[in-house]
Design brief:
Layout (H helix, E strand, L loop, with lengths): L5 E9 L4 H9 L12 H8 L1 E2 L4 E8 L9 H5 L2 E8 L24 H8 L3 E2 H6 L6
Antiparallel strand pairs: 1-3, 1-4, 2-3, 2-5
Length: about 140
């Protein structure tokens, strides 16, 4: 049996009064400390984009079923999760369709989506650092 291993498009909004502690945890490298996902939390925050409504968006690779089962407690400390959905069709996923186990580790299936996201909105981390995200 294959483990669920898919890339998700995550949309989240920083909780009121959590901006400073989130920035501190990113800066000191403790965001996600204790999680098997390791440095992915910091990577995701570096890649996240912020829209005009204050919603951060990023693509996250997850081994869990249900989605973000491991990561959710770490994210929910700082964020209200707006949505978590497949970032691409599972039908085309080499891991999910059984043609290549653990394909998501080196897969570029969300490359176009990630390129498009990178050109939208503002850098989430940049806004967080410049205090423009604080209510």
């Amino acid at each position: 049996m294959l483990h669920s291993f898919v890339r998700y498009l995550v949309k989240a909004k920083v909780k009121t009064d959590k901006s400073e502690s989130l920035l501190r945890s990113i800066s000191d490298g403790t965001l996600g400390k204790g999680s098997i996902a390791g440095d992915e939390y910091i990577y995701n925050m570096n890649e996240a984009r912020l829209n005009d409504d204050g919603v951060a968006t990023w693509v996250e690779t997850c081994f869990c079923d249900p989605p973000l089962a491991e990561e959710r407690p770490y994210w929910e400390e700082y964020f209200e999760l707006v949505s978590v959905k497949d970032a691409h069709s599972r039908r085309n996923c080499r891991h999910e369709n059984g043609t290549e186990r653990w394909a998501c580790c080196d897969c570029d299936c969300t490359e176009r989506l990630e390129e498009r996201l990178a050109s939208q909105g503002d850098s989430f981390l940049g806004k967080l650092r410049s205090s423009q995200l604080r209510p």
